Amino acid sequence: MVVTPALVIAMGWQFTRTPPAVLPAEDQGILFAQIQTPAGATAEATKAVIDDATKYLLTEEKDAVTSVFAVNGFNFGGLGR
């Protein structure tokens, strides 16, 4: 019964002691997205989808997007598929 309130108080105290430099003061303006094609899609088909998305972002969203970095074949799941 004493442990939970003690942890809450300790976390609150630590939050007030965290220097502002550790936490970003504003939006850093970075967006991460993942495009998933159907199972068995070729690298060329995936690249075509990535190219279409890149073209859209750099033309239709040019007021908000200054650059795009794309990687074909990366898997956030880390399974190498």
Automatic annotation (TrEMBL):
It comes from the Eukaryota. GO terms for cellular component: membrane. InterPro entries: Acrflvin-R (IPR001036). This is Acriflavine resistance protein B. It comes from Rhizopus delemar. Gene3D superfamilies: Multidrug efflux transporter AcrB pore domain. Pfam families: ACR_tran. GO terms for molecular function: transmembrane transporter activity. SUPFAM superfamilies: Multidrug efflux transporter AcrB pore domain, PN1, PN2, PC1 and PC2 subdomains (SSF82693).
